[in-house]
Specification:
Blueprint: E1 5-10, E2 13-18, H1 28-43, E3 49-54, H2 76-85, E4 90-94, E5 97-99, H3 101-108, E6 111-115, E7 119-121, H4 135-143, H5 145-154, E8 158-159, H6 160-166, E9 171-173, H7 178-190, H8 204-210, H9 215-222, H10 232-245, H11 248-263, H12 266-280, E10 299-302, H13 306-317, E11 322-325, H14 329-348, H15 354-362, E12 364-367, E13 378-381, H16 387-400, E14 406-409, H17 416-420, E15 429-434, E16 443-448, H18 454-466, E17 470-475, H19 482-498, H20 503-513, H21 519-526, H22 539-545, E18 558-560, E19 566-568, H23 570-582, H24 593-613, H25 620-631, H26 639-647, H27 649-659, H28 665-673
Parallel strand pairs: 2-3, 3-4, 4-6, 5-7, 6-9, 10-11, 10-13, 11-12, 13-14, 14-15, 16-17
Antiparallel strand pairs: 1-2, 7-8, 15-16, 18-19
Helix pairs in contact: 1-2, 2-3, 3-4, 4-5, 4-10, 5-10, 10-11, 12-25, 12-26, 13-14, 14-15, 19-24, 20-24, 24-27, 25-26, 27-28
The chain binds (S)-3-Hydroxyhexanoyl-CoA.
Amino acid sequence: MGEAVTVSVENGIAIVTIANPPVNALGHSVRSGLDKAADRIDSDVDIRAAIIRADGSTFPAGADIGEFPNVPQPFHGDVFDKIEALPKPVIAAIHGTTLGGGLELAMACHYRVAADDSKMGLPEVQLGLLPGARGTQRLPRLIGAEAALGMMLSGKPIAAKKALDAGLVDKIVPQAELDAAAIEMATALMAKDGPLPRASQDSNWTEKDRADPQLFDRVRETHGRSFRGVIAPNAILTCVKAAVELPFEQGVEVESSEFERLLASDQSRALIHVFYAMRETAKVPGIGKETPLVDIKSVGIIGAGTMGGGIAMCFANAGIPVKLVEVKQDALDRGLGVIRKNYENTAKKGRLTDDQVESLMDSITGTLAMEDLSDVDLVIEAVFESMEIKEKVFTRLDAIAKPGAILASNTSFLDIDHIAAMTKRPEMVLGLHFFSPANVMPLLEVVRGEKSSDSVIATGMKLGKTLRKTPVLARVCDGFIANRLMFPYMVASQNMLLRGTPMQEIDAVMRQYGFAMGPIALLDLIGLDVITFPGETTMTGELVKAERRGQKLNGGFYDYDEKRRGTPSPAALDIIDKVRQANGVEAAPPLSPDEILTGLLYPVVNEGAKILEEGIALRAGDIDVTAILGYNWPSYQGGPMCWADIHGLPKIVAGLEKMGIEPSALLAEKAASGGSFT
Ligand code: 3H9
């Protein structure tokens, strides 16, 4: 491996090149290299200007996250300050995705020239952090506190053109001309005398911002949602206030202490875990670049209901033509109608043109003949969840599909191995479990049957990426990872309700934890009929019998007003009471918020441990990702397994035992040995 930072001098210009693949993260070697380069630029009389650039796909995409939670040394901010203090002009030549510490480095340079297709951002908030290398102090001075807060609170990058308009960069040029443009700029600057522009000393914006007393209230209002549950946004606000009100050096002190506080927090530990876990799911031991893939150029989908239709949209969106099969014309028409309506709604919001809607619809062909699937590369079955029906579908499909075609089921809990056994090609069968609505939800569970080939699994995982979803590999079991994991949560919440804890209290505790809605409201949203078998005498079964199907029809546990705000339904409370009596359950005093939280979450952690122990999931991080992407588990809690580690495994084992639930062997072992899941 070469040096992470090299310096060459040509015609009085020092060209400082960063080379630290894959994203030129500002790890120790890069920071030390930049520190030495700054010393050389300062002391070498032959150097009259400098350019900082990067090899590879991007200017640094940030600090090296792997060094956290330690405070890295030498500290980024100190190195950047040294660069800004240089008496010779320093130009940052920016390309790719210049993020976090990378943008902070660029802001410490005196000038910035950027490739016109590059992006710049400060995504630290997504890691539970803030831009801790003077970013909260330099950005408000360059583009104003309001725009700076917009970037820091959303964490979203902006395009080069917008950066130019905002005053964040001085010039944009086509990527191919970037180096030449930087050299041209340096040459012109060498001939010029006068003070260098230093962001830390720029007071234009701070003076304006000080004269705008409503600024921070306005920002709080505009970005209200970003503040929910998380601590980093308030810390960012504190730092930017300091940037507006205090001299740079004092602002830096505020930033450093806030950064270190966040770095030591559970939230950043959880979010950094999620960052790595999201990227790790795609890695499957034994499957690599050499594993042959099946080329998926066309797809068949059986069933044009909610799931089938949503899956068809995923493929159409990815530019892969779809044949959509139904048994009856009216069901097919209905399915295609729903798809069209979804696309038209997107067009109404301005996110598709009318022509795009037509061309997407053209890529989905409806048919009543399964025989039409004889030439597609992949078939996904999305029919009613009955093994009897699936047996018939797969037996027939096997006879129709061409040799080498992959046959997948979208079942959410049925046995993939049993389904595969209906065919003469079990090695070509797998589960592709989408979450509803399939065109929106970002998770894809790829379910590996006993006989699924490596090539089929590799193709399934790749498909996740093609469809812009995060693929997670699961083995066969009832409910795979996400649904199996959350089943105890749903059961526990209903037991609490049955024993007399009010529904609104159960839901409030879980909202407080960070879920968008609590488990009881979630049941109403999913639809009580969807989760209940006909004739069931459970609470949900009795509610369905009373024609209460949830939000969509007559309310469920809650009654809903026209704004979909729920209040506990007296009719539902009556039904709960009857079910309680019929089952001989005694009402107990309502549980405390802590008892609700642990009563709902400990069983999930226990199930997660079993999923891991049985090899259903490859790693604890995969379980966390399925919970976050499939069930909107708050990412700042890290998912159930990371949360368990932070919360304390011995406490969870003791709590489970008190509830009369046997802790899984893996959980008990980890708790006893001081181990952790993540
Ligand atoms: C920060 O800067 C704090 C400072 O304010 C203050 C300091 C005091 N570090 O995503 P990909 C790895 S906080 C270490 O698949 P893409 C990644 O894990 C940082 N590793 O590629 C993966 O490894 P592997 C603020 C990193 O092309 C590989 O690179 N910056 C980092 O889809 C490829 O990543 C961010 O939060 C990193 N900073 O997307 C930016 N970044 O191959 C985070 C990536 O072993 N990064 N890796 O799985 C990104 O958003 C995307 O990676 C990026 C490329 C858009 C750059």
